[in-house]
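Question: I have long wanted to understand how a fold can be written as tokens. Here is the record:
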Amino acid sequence: MTRMMRQLARWHIWLGWLVGVPLLLWTVTGLVMVVRPIEEVRGTDRLIERPAQPLPPDTRIAVALPAATTKPVLSVTTAVESGETVTRIAYADGTSARFRADGSAMAPLSEIEARMIVAAGVRGGDRVAGSRRFAAEAVPFDFRKPMPVWQVVLEDGTNVYVGTETGRIEAVRTRWWRFYDTMWGLHIMDLQTREDTHHPLLIGFAALSMLGVLMGCVLLFRRRRAGPRGAR
């Protein structure tokens, strides 16, 4: 039994050298990810909540879809926004369209409209450093949603994304969110997409780390001889 414990201790040391870096990486990145509330990370604490406005009495909605439209519809919603009745149609392919109460289609959001939405919906949203429009297939990495958006950059480095089709704030990416996102990529060992939590590298190191922990638990029961009295 003693000989087996000694051999187990040797294996545990060598395994510790192998998984020590991943274990330290997971601990550090995990600490970073919990050090601040998730609402602050996502930027939802900066959003200005506005009470929903009721539709005017006897409101009639007329939406005329193009005759060639064959896309499946997921939902149709109507709400009052900035004093105007707006009907949204969300399609199954992820696109959407907006219509006025008279049924006329609303054009994609302009840069001025996007800035106005950010100024009204985000604390500090009136301090804009710049803005840029992105197509669905070329959105910035910190957004990662296949939809056309306006990126409104605030003076404090926050990126606010407003959908050109939805007319809504789709995401708030603060500098802390981008740092958090990097830590998340390190935590799951996927800095390229930061989405894959199931790949051989992560699974392999997790299995080896679990084995090392189990070996350490067994070694807790290893008997050690007491040293001579007065020895230091």
Remarks:
- The beta strands are 73-81, 84-91, 96-100, 128-134, 149-154, 159-163, 169-173.
